[in-house]
Design a protein that fits this description.
By secondary structure, this protein is mainly α. The protein is elongated.
Protein backbone atom coordinates (compact mmCIF):
# COMPACT_ATOMS: atom_id res chain seq x y z
CA UNK A 1 0.00 0.00 0.00
CA UNK A 2 2.83 2.39 0.85
CA UNK A 3 4.59 1.57 -2.43
CA UNK A 4 1.45 2.42 -4.43
CA UNK A 5 1.09 5.67 -2.52
CA UNK A 6 4.75 6.54 -3.16
CA UNK A 7 4.33 5.79 -6.89
CA UNK A 8 1.36 8.12 -7.13
CA UNK A 9 3.27 10.83 -5.27
CA UNK A 10 6.19 10.56 -7.71
CA UNK A 11 3.82 10.73 -10.70
CA UNK A 12 2.06 13.70 -9.15
CA UNK A 13 5.35 15.49 -8.53
CA UNK A 14 6.46 14.84 -12.14
CA UNK A 15 3.16 16.10 -13.51
CA UNK A 16 3.30 19.25 -11.37
CA UNK A 17 6.88 19.85 -12.50
CA UNK A 18 6.07 19.60 -16.17
CA UNK A 19 2.96 21.75 -15.67
CA UNK A 20 5.11 24.41 -14.03
CA UNK A 21 7.57 24.26 -16.94
CA UNK A 22 4.68 24.66 -19.41
CA UNK A 23 3.45 27.72 -17.53
CA UNK A 24 6.95 29.26 -17.50
CA UNK A 25 8.34 28.82 -21.02
CA UNK A 26 11.91 29.69 -21.84
CA UNK A 27 14.68 28.96 -24.28
CA UNK A 28 18.16 27.46 -24.12
CA UNK A 29 20.93 28.04 -26.69
CA UNK A 30 24.31 26.36 -26.96
CA UNK A 31 27.22 27.83 -28.95
CA UNK A 32 29.76 25.14 -29.89
CA UNK A 33 32.47 25.49 -32.61
CA UNK A 34 30.79 28.49 -34.19
CA UNK A 35 27.43 26.80 -34.35
CA UNK A 36 24.48 27.86 -32.22
CA UNK A 37 21.81 25.40 -31.30
CA UNK A 38 18.66 26.56 -29.54
CA UNK A 39 15.60 24.81 -28.03
CA UNK A 40 12.99 25.30 -25.41
CA UNK A 41 13.79 24.78 -21.75
CA UNK A 42 11.25 21.90 -21.44
CA UNK A 43 12.88 19.94 -24.28
CA UNK A 44 16.27 20.59 -22.72
CA UNK A 45 15.17 19.06 -19.40
CA UNK A 46 13.72 16.02 -21.16
CA UNK A 47 16.99 15.52 -23.09
CA UNK A 48 18.99 15.74 -19.86
CA UNK A 49 16.84 13.07 -18.21
CA UNK A 50 17.17 10.77 -21.25
CA UNK A 51 20.94 11.23 -21.14
CA UNK A 52 21.07 10.18 -17.49
CA UNK A 53 18.98 7.07 -18.20
CA UNK A 54 21.21 6.14 -21.14
CA UNK A 55 24.32 6.51 -18.98
CA UNK A 56 22.88 4.26 -16.31
CA UNK A 57 21.92 1.59 -18.87
CA UNK A 58 25.36 1.71 -20.42
CA UNK A 59 27.03 1.31 -17.03
CA UNK A 60 24.79 -1.69 -16.22
CA UNK A 61 25.59 -3.38 -19.55
CA UNK A 62 29.34 -2.91 -19.15
CA UNK A 63 29.25 -4.12 -15.54
CA UNK A 64 27.14 -7.17 -16.49
CA UNK A 65 29.56 -8.02 -19.30
CA UNK A 66 32.54 -8.15 -16.98
CA UNK A 67 30.62 -10.06 -14.27
CA UNK A 68 29.11 -12.64 -16.63
CA UNK A 69 31.81 -15.34 -16.03
CA UNK A 70 31.42 -15.07 -12.25
CA UNK A 71 27.64 -15.23 -12.51
CA UNK A 72 27.79 -18.27 -14.73
CA UNK A 73 30.13 -19.97 -12.27
CA UNK A 74 27.81 -19.17 -9.35
CA UNK A 75 24.84 -20.45 -11.34
CA UNK A 76 26.40 -23.86 -11.95
CA UNK A 77 27.72 -24.03 -8.38
CA UNK A 78 24.26 -23.30 -7.01
CA UNK A 79 22.76 -25.92 -9.28
CA UNK A 80 25.34 -28.47 -8.16
CA UNK A 81 24.77 -27.55 -4.50
CA UNK A 82 21.00 -27.94 -4.85
CA UNK A 83 21.48 -31.38 -6.39
CA UNK A 84 23.77 -32.33 -3.51
CA UNK A 85 21.28 -31.23 -0.87
CA UNK A 86 18.46 -33.04 -2.65
CA UNK A 87 20.57 -36.20 -2.66
CA UNK A 88 21.43 -35.65 1.01
CA UNK A 89 17.78 -35.23 1.96
CA UNK A 90 16.73 -38.29 -0.01
CA UNK A 91 19.62 -40.24 1.53
CA UNK A 92 18.48 -39.38 5.06
CA UNK A 93 15.01 -40.66 4.20
CA UNK A 94 16.45 -43.85 2.71
CA UNK A 95 18.64 -44.41 5.78
CA UNK A 96 15.66 -43.88 8.03
CA UNK A 97 13.74 -46.45 6.02
CA UNK A 98 16.62 -48.94 6.27
CA UNK A 99 17.32 -48.98 2.51
CA UNK A 100 21.11 -49.37 2.61
CA UNK A 101 21.54 -49.69 -1.19
CA UNK A 102 19.66 -46.48 -1.98
CA UNK A 103 21.27 -44.64 0.93
CA UNK A 104 24.79 -45.59 -0.21
CA UNK A 105 24.05 -44.45 -3.79
CA UNK A 106 22.72 -41.13 -2.55
CA UNK A 107 25.71 -40.69 -0.23
CA UNK A 108 28.01 -40.94 -3.27
CA UNK A 109 25.89 -38.40 -5.14
CA UNK A 110 25.94 -36.00 -2.20
CA UNK A 111 29.69 -36.38 -1.80
CA UNK A 112 30.15 -35.72 -5.54
CA UNK A 113 28.02 -32.58 -5.67
CA UNK A 114 29.09 -31.21 -2.28
CA UNK A 115 32.77 -32.06 -2.56
CA UNK A 116 33.78 -28.39 -2.37
CA UNK A 117 31.66 -27.74 0.73
CA UNK A 118 32.42 -28.73 4.32
CA UNK A 119 29.12 -30.47 4.98
CA UNK A 120 29.04 -32.58 8.21
CA UNK A 121 25.64 -34.03 7.36
CA UNK A 122 27.21 -35.97 4.48
CA UNK A 123 29.62 -37.65 6.89
CA UNK A 124 26.82 -38.33 9.35
CA UNK A 125 24.73 -39.92 6.59
CA UNK A 126 27.76 -41.99 5.58
CA UNK A 127 28.05 -43.25 9.18
CA UNK A 128 24.36 -44.08 9.39
CA UNK A 129 24.53 -45.96 6.11
CA UNK A 130 27.55 -47.92 7.35
CA UNK A 131 25.59 -48.92 10.44
CA UNK A 132 22.73 -50.17 8.29
CA UNK A 133 25.20 -52.13 6.20
CA UNK A 134 26.72 -53.63 9.33
CA UNK A 135 30.11 -52.00 8.81
CA UNK A 136 30.56 -50.84 12.42
CA UNK A 137 34.30 -50.28 12.04
CA UNK A 138 33.70 -47.69 9.30
CA UNK A 139 30.92 -46.07 11.34
CA UNK A 140 33.20 -45.75 14.38
CA UNK A 141 35.90 -44.22 12.19
CA UNK A 142 33.47 -41.60 10.88
CA UNK A 143 32.17 -40.85 14.38
CA UNK A 144 35.75 -40.35 15.56
CA UNK A 145 36.24 -37.86 12.72
CA UNK A 146 33.06 -36.05 13.71
CA UNK A 147 34.17 -36.03 17.35
CA UNK A 148 37.39 -34.26 16.34
CA UNK A 149 35.46 -31.36 14.80
CA UNK A 150 34.21 -28.79 17.35
CA UNK A 151 31.03 -28.25 15.31
CA UNK A 152 30.13 -31.94 15.26
CA UNK A 153 31.77 -33.16 18.46
CA UNK A 154 28.50 -33.89 20.26
CA UNK A 155 26.99 -36.03 17.49
CA UNK A 156 30.29 -37.90 17.20
CA UNK A 157 30.31 -38.62 20.93
CA UNK A 158 26.76 -39.91 20.79
CA UNK A 159 27.63 -42.26 17.94
CA UNK A 160 30.69 -43.54 19.81
CA UNK A 161 28.63 -43.95 22.98
CA UNK A 162 26.01 -46.04 21.20
CA UNK A 163 28.72 -48.22 19.65
CA UNK A 164 30.34 -48.75 23.06
CA UNK A 165 26.95 -49.69 24.48
CA UNK A 166 26.44 -52.18 21.64
CA UNK A 167 29.82 -53.78 22.39
CA UNK A 168 29.10 -53.85 26.12
CA UNK A 169 32.09 -51.64 26.92
CA UNK A 170 30.69 -49.82 29.95
CA UNK A 171 33.92 -47.93 30.70
CA UNK A 172 34.17 -46.49 27.19
CA UNK A 173 30.46 -45.63 27.16
CA UNK A 174 30.83 -43.83 30.47
CA UNK A 175 33.84 -41.89 29.17
CA UNK A 176 31.98 -40.71 26.06
CA UNK A 177 28.90 -39.75 28.07
CA UNK A 178 30.94 -37.79 30.62
CA UNK A 179 32.73 -35.88 27.85
CA UNK A 180 29.35 -35.08 26.29
CA UNK A 181 28.05 -33.84 29.65
CA UNK A 182 31.00 -31.46 29.95
CA UNK A 183 30.26 -30.06 26.49
CA UNK A 184 26.46 -29.89 26.81
CA UNK A 185 25.10 -30.55 30.34
CA UNK A 186 21.57 -29.92 29.08
CA UNK A 187 21.53 -32.92 26.71
CA UNK A 188 19.25 -35.56 28.29
CA UNK A 189 20.88 -38.67 26.80
CA UNK A 190 24.32 -37.78 28.13
CA UNK A 191 23.12 -36.93 31.63
CA UNK A 192 20.89 -40.00 31.77
CA UNK A 193 23.68 -42.25 30.50
CA UNK A 194 26.17 -41.00 33.09
CA UNK A 195 23.52 -41.40 35.78
CA UNK A 196 22.80 -45.02 34.82
CA UNK A 197 26.47 -45.88 34.40
CA UNK A 198 27.49 -44.49 37.79
CA UNK A 199 24.64 -46.34 39.46
CA UNK A 200 25.59 -49.57 37.65
CA UNK A 201 29.14 -49.23 38.97
CA UNK A 202 27.90 -48.70 42.52
CA UNK A 203 28.77 -44.98 42.66
CA UNK A 204 25.42 -43.98 44.13
CA UNK A 205 26.73 -40.73 45.62
CA UNK A 206 28.00 -39.63 42.20
CA UNK A 207 24.69 -40.64 40.61
CA UNK A 208 22.79 -38.64 43.24
CA UNK A 209 24.92 -35.57 42.50
CA UNK A 210 24.21 -35.87 38.77
CA UNK A 211 20.50 -36.32 39.43
CA UNK A 212 20.47 -33.18 41.57
CA UNK A 213 22.19 -31.22 38.78
CA UNK A 214 19.66 -32.49 36.26
CA UNK A 215 16.81 -31.51 38.53
CA UNK A 216 18.27 -28.00 38.98
CA UNK A 217 18.60 -27.73 35.19
CA UNK A 218 14.98 -28.95 34.82
CA UNK A 219 16.02 -31.88 32.66
CA UNK A 220 13.80 -34.14 34.78
CA UNK A 221 10.51 -33.18 36.40
CA UNK A 222 10.00 -33.25 40.14
CA UNK A 223 8.04 -36.52 40.25
CA UNK A 224 10.63 -38.41 38.22
CA UNK A 225 13.45 -36.85 40.22
CA UNK A 226 11.89 -37.97 43.51
CA UNK A 227 11.41 -41.51 42.23
CA UNK A 228 14.94 -41.84 40.86
CA UNK A 229 16.43 -40.37 44.03
CA UNK A 230 14.47 -42.89 46.11
CA UNK A 231 15.74 -45.76 43.93
CA UNK A 232 19.35 -44.55 44.19
CA UNK A 233 19.09 -44.13 47.96
CA UNK A 234 17.61 -47.62 48.28
CA UNK A 235 20.46 -49.04 46.19
CA UNK A 236 22.95 -47.23 48.42
CA UNK A 237 21.23 -48.57 51.53
CA UNK A 238 21.34 -52.07 50.07
CA UNK A 239 25.09 -51.78 49.63
CA UNK A 240 25.54 -50.49 53.22
CA UNK A 241 23.17 -52.97 54.86
CA UNK A 242 25.89 -55.32 56.14
CA UNK A 243 28.74 -52.90 56.79
CA UNK A 244 26.93 -49.77 58.02
CA UNK A 245 23.41 -50.36 59.40
CA UNK A 246 23.12 -46.74 60.51
CA UNK A 247 23.95 -45.39 57.06
CA UNK A 248 21.64 -47.94 55.48
CA UNK A 249 18.82 -46.89 57.79
CA UNK A 250 19.32 -43.17 57.01
CA UNK A 251 19.36 -43.69 53.24
CA UNK A 252 16.44 -46.15 53.24
CA UNK A 253 14.26 -43.95 55.45
CA UNK A 254 14.79 -40.96 53.14
CA UNK A 255 13.95 -43.18 50.16
CA UNK A 256 10.77 -44.37 51.87
CA UNK A 257 9.67 -40.78 52.44
CA UNK A 258 10.30 -39.92 48.78
CA UNK A 259 8.52 -43.06 47.47
CA UNK A 260 6.25 -44.63 50.10
CA UNK A 261 5.28 -47.45 47.71
CA UNK A 262 8.90 -48.54 47.15
CA UNK A 263 8.84 -51.81 49.10
CA UNK A 264 12.63 -52.50 49.12
CA UNK A 265 13.27 -49.16 50.82
CA UNK A 266 10.98 -50.01 53.72
CA UNK A 267 12.31 -53.57 53.96
CA UNK A 268 15.95 -52.46 54.08
CA UNK A 269 15.14 -49.72 56.60
CA UNK A 270 13.31 -52.21 58.83
CA UNK A 271 16.17 -54.73 58.71
CA UNK A 272 18.68 -52.02 59.58
CA UNK A 273 16.54 -50.88 62.52
CA UNK A 274 16.21 -54.46 63.75
CA UNK A 275 20.00 -54.81 63.71
CA UNK A 276 20.21 -51.57 65.68
CA UNK A 277 17.58 -52.87 68.18
CA UNK A 278 15.09 -50.18 67.10
CA UNK A 279 12.14 -52.52 66.83
CA UNK A 280 9.50 -49.89 67.51
CA UNK A 281 10.76 -47.67 64.69
CA UNK A 282 10.94 -50.68 62.41
CA UNK A 283 7.33 -51.52 63.25
CA UNK A 284 6.19 -47.98 62.36
CA UNK A 285 8.16 -48.02 59.10
CA UNK A 286 6.65 -51.36 58.09
CA UNK A 287 3.14 -50.24 58.96
CA UNK A 288 3.53 -47.08 56.87
CA UNK A 289 4.88 -49.10 53.93
CA UNK A 290 2.07 -51.67 54.27
CA UNK A 291 -0.54 -48.93 54.05
CA UNK A 292 1.07 -47.66 50.85
CA UNK A 293 1.77 -51.02 49.17
CA UNK A 294 1.00 -54.38 50.87
CA UNK A 295 3.75 -56.86 50.04
CA UNK A 296 4.57 -60.35 51.32
CA UNK A 297 8.13 -59.35 52.25
CA UNK A 298 6.78 -56.59 54.48
CA UNK A 299 4.33 -59.01 56.08
CA UNK A 300 7.06 -61.55 56.85
CA UNK A 301 9.27 -58.88 58.43
CA UNK A 302 6.42 -57.45 60.47
CA UNK A 303 5.10 -60.75 61.78
CA UNK A 304 8.58 -61.99 62.74
CA UNK A 305 9.73 -58.60 64.02
CA UNK A 306 10.58 -59.95 67.48
CA UNK A 307 12.32 -63.32 67.04
CA UNK A 308 11.53 -64.42 70.59
CA UNK A 309 7.75 -64.17 70.20
CA UNK A 310 5.64 -67.31 70.04
CA UNK A 311 3.02 -68.21 67.45
CA UNK A 312 0.26 -66.54 69.47
CA UNK A 313 2.08 -63.19 69.48
CA UNK A 314 2.82 -63.50 65.76
CA UNK A 315 -0.85 -64.29 65.07
CA UNK A 316 -1.89 -61.21 67.04
CA UNK A 317 0.58 -59.07 65.09
CA UNK A 318 -0.66 -60.48 61.79
CA UNK A 319 -4.22 -59.61 62.74
CA UNK A 320 -3.19 -56.02 63.46
CA UNK A 321 -1.31 -55.79 60.15
CA UNK A 322 -4.34 -57.15 58.31
CA UNK A 323 -6.53 -54.47 59.85
CA UNK A 324 -4.37 -51.77 58.19
CA UNK A 325 -5.41 -53.04 54.74
CA UNK A 326 -8.63 -55.00 55.33
CA UNK A 327 -9.75 -57.19 52.46
CA UNK A 328 -6.47 -57.03 50.57
CA UNK A 329 -5.28 -60.41 49.32
CA UNK A 330 -1.85 -60.00 50.93
CA UNK A 331 -3.49 -59.16 54.26
CA UNK A 332 -5.61 -62.29 54.05
CA UNK A 333 -2.69 -64.53 53.11
CA UNK A 334 -0.45 -63.15 55.84
CA UNK A 335 -3.18 -63.62 58.47
CA UNK A 336 -3.99 -67.12 57.19
CA UNK A 337 -0.34 -68.22 57.44
CA UNK A 338 0.02 -66.83 60.94
CA UNK A 339 -3.27 -68.46 61.97
CA UNK A 340 -2.09 -71.81 60.57
CA UNK A 341 1.13 -71.58 62.59
CA UNK A 342 -0.97 -70.79 65.67
CA UNK A 343 -3.31 -73.69 64.76
CA UNK A 344 -6.26 -71.33 64.48
CA UNK A 345 -7.64 -73.41 61.64
CA UNK A 346 -11.00 -71.65 61.41
CA UNK A 347 -9.45 -68.23 60.84
CA UNK A 348 -6.81 -69.67 58.56
CA UNK A 349 -9.38 -71.41 56.36
CA UNK A 350 -11.70 -68.39 56.16
CA UNK A 351 -8.91 -66.00 55.20
CA UNK A 352 -7.30 -68.41 52.73
CA UNK A 353 -10.63 -69.14 51.05
CA UNK A 354 -11.37 -65.40 50.80
CA UNK A 355 -7.91 -64.83 49.28
CA UNK A 356 -8.45 -67.63 46.76
CA UNK A 357 -11.81 -66.21 45.75
CA UNK A 358 -10.61 -62.62 45.35
CA UNK A 359 -7.29 -63.47 43.65
CA UNK A 360 -6.99 -67.14 42.62
CA UNK A 361 -3.31 -67.97 42.53
CA UNK A 362 -0.78 -70.62 43.42
CA UNK A 363 0.07 -69.61 46.99
CA UNK A 364 -3.57 -69.42 48.07
CA UNK A 365 -4.29 -72.99 46.97
CA UNK A 366 -1.05 -74.30 48.43
CA UNK A 367 -1.96 -72.64 51.71
CA UNK A 368 -5.40 -74.29 51.63
CA UNK A 369 -3.69 -77.63 51.05
CA UNK A 370 -1.46 -76.99 54.08
CA UNK A 371 -4.49 -76.09 56.20
CA UNK A 372 -6.40 -79.18 55.05
CA UNK A 373 -3.45 -81.46 55.79
CA UNK A 374 -2.76 -79.93 59.21
CA UNK A 375 -6.38 -79.92 60.35
CA UNK A 376 -7.89 -83.09 58.82
CA UNK A 377 -5.21 -84.96 56.93
CA UNK A 378 -7.75 -85.66 54.16
CA UNK A 379 -5.56 -86.73 51.24
CA UNK A 380 -8.32 -86.35 48.64
CA UNK A 381 -8.96 -82.71 49.50
CA UNK A 382 -5.27 -81.97 49.78
CA UNK A 383 -4.79 -83.43 46.31
CA UNK A 384 -7.61 -81.26 45.06
CA UNK A 385 -6.01 -78.05 46.33
CA UNK A 386 -2.65 -79.14 44.96
CA UNK A 387 -4.18 -79.76 41.56
CA UNK A 388 -5.70 -76.30 41.57
CA UNK A 389 -2.38 -74.80 42.62
CA UNK A 390 -0.73 -76.53 39.68
CA UNK A 391 -3.03 -74.81 37.18
CA UNK A 392 -3.61 -71.51 39.01
CA UNK A 393 -1.96 -68.22 38.02
CA UNK A 394 1.48 -67.81 39.52
CA UNK A 395 2.25 -65.47 42.37
CA UNK A 396 3.81 -62.08 41.68
CA UNK A 397 7.60 -61.95 41.88
CA UNK A 398 10.44 -59.61 41.04
CA UNK A 399 11.41 -59.45 37.38
CA UNK A 400 13.79 -57.29 35.37
CA UNK A 401 13.76 -56.81 31.59
CA UNK A 402 11.35 -59.73 31.21
CA UNK A 403 13.46 -62.19 33.24
CA UNK A 404 12.76 -63.39 36.81
CA UNK A 405 14.96 -62.05 39.60
CA UNK A 406 15.63 -63.38 43.08
CA UNK A 407 15.74 -59.94 44.69
CA UNK A 408 15.28 -56.28 43.87
CA UNK A 409 18.20 -54.17 42.73
CA UNK A 410 18.45 -50.49 41.87
CA UNK A 411 20.00 -51.17 38.45
CA UNK A 412 19.31 -53.83 35.85
CA UNK A 413 22.30 -56.21 35.58
CA UNK A 414 21.77 -56.61 31.83
CA UNK A 415 20.91 -53.14 30.54
CA UNK A 416 22.19 -50.96 33.38
CA UNK A 417 18.86 -49.14 33.50
CA UNK A 418 17.67 -47.53 36.73
CA UNK A 419 14.40 -48.62 38.34
CA UNK A 420 13.97 -51.55 35.96
CA UNK A 421 12.63 -54.09 38.47
CA UNK A 422 8.90 -54.73 38.66
CA UNK A 423 6.69 -56.82 40.94
CA UNK A 424 4.47 -58.74 38.55
CA UNK A 425 3.04 -62.15 37.71
CA UNK A 426 5.46 -64.32 35.67
CA UNK A 427 4.41 -65.14 32.14
CA UNK A 428 5.34 -68.80 32.27
CA UNK A 429 4.75 -71.54 34.76
CA UNK A 430 7.33 -72.79 37.26
CA UNK A 431 8.68 -76.20 36.07
CA UNK A 432 9.90 -76.99 39.57
CA UNK A 433 6.41 -76.45 40.95
CA UNK A 434 4.89 -78.70 38.27
CA UNK A 435 7.27 -81.52 39.15
CA UNK A 436 6.76 -81.00 42.86
CA UNK A 437 2.97 -81.05 42.66
CA UNK A 438 3.13 -84.07 40.37
CA UNK A 439 4.95 -85.94 43.07
CA UNK A 440 2.48 -84.72 45.66
CA UNK A 441 -0.46 -86.02 43.64
CA UNK A 442 1.03 -89.53 43.69
CA UNK A 443 0.90 -89.65 47.42
CA UNK A 444 1.70 -87.30 50.26
CA UNK A 445 3.75 -87.41 53.37
CA UNK A 446 5.00 -84.27 55.08
CA UNK A 447 8.60 -83.49 54.26
CA UNK A 448 10.89 -81.45 56.51
CA UNK A 449 9.56 -77.90 56.61
CA UNK A 450 12.19 -75.41 55.47
CA UNK A 451 9.87 -72.51 54.71
CA UNK A 452 7.60 -71.25 57.50
CA UNK A 453 5.11 -69.93 54.94
CA UNK A 454 4.80 -73.03 52.72
CA UNK A 455 4.72 -76.77 53.34
CA UNK A 456 6.04 -79.26 50.80
CA UNK A 457 4.82 -82.81 50.27
CA UNK A 458 7.12 -84.97 48.18
CA UNK A 459 6.94 -88.61 49.25
CA UNK A 460 5.01 -91.16 47.19
CA UNK A 461 3.29 -93.83 49.23
CA UNK A 462 1.49 -95.43 46.26
CA UNK A 463 3.03 -96.65 43.02
CA UNK A 464 1.96 -94.77 39.86
CA UNK A 465 -0.29 -97.57 38.63
CA UNK A 466 -2.27 -97.42 41.89
CA UNK A 467 -2.46 -93.67 41.92
CA UNK A 468 -5.92 -92.44 42.98
CA UNK A 469 -7.63 -90.18 40.47
CA UNK A 470 -8.45 -86.62 41.43
CA UNK A 471 -12.13 -85.74 41.57
CA UNK A 472 -13.58 -84.63 38.26
CA UNK A 473 -14.04 -80.97 37.55
CA UNK A 474 -11.17 -79.70 39.72
CA UNK A 475 -9.36 -78.11 36.80
CA UNK A 476 -12.48 -76.43 35.42
CA UNK A 477 -13.02 -74.05 38.26
CA UNK A 478 -15.68 -76.14 40.07
CA UNK A 479 -16.00 -75.70 43.86
CA UNK A 480 -13.93 -78.02 46.07
CA UNK A 481 -15.35 -81.17 47.61
CA UNK A 482 -16.98 -80.99 50.96
CA UNK A 483 -14.52 -81.64 53.74
CA UNK A 484 -14.84 -85.17 55.14
CA UNK A 485 -13.19 -86.72 58.18
CA UNK A 486 -9.81 -88.24 57.58
Amino acid sequence: MLRILAFFLVVLAGGLGFAWLADHPGSVSILWQGQEVGTSFTVFVILQLALVVAAVLLFWLVRGFFKAPDRMSRFFATRRRDKGYRALSAGMIAAGAGDAVMARRLVKQAQKHLSNRREPMVRFLDAQTALIEGDHAKARSIFETLEGDPDTRLVGLRGLYLEAERLGDRDAARSYAERAVRIAPHVPWAGGAVLDLKAAQGDFDGALAILEAQRDSRLVDKAESRRLRAVLLTGKAQELADSDPTGAKTAAREAQKLAPDLVPAAAIAARAMIRLNEHRQAQKALEAAWKANPHPELAALYIHLWPGDGVAERFKRARHLSSLQPGHVESRLALARAALDAREFGTARVEAMAAAESAPRESAYLLLADIEDAETGNDALVRQWMSRALHAPKDPSWSVDGAPAEEWRAVSPTTGRLDAYTWSVPDEGDPELVQRVGRMLRGMQPAPNTDPNRRVFIDARLPPEEEPKAPEGLDNGEPPLERTPA
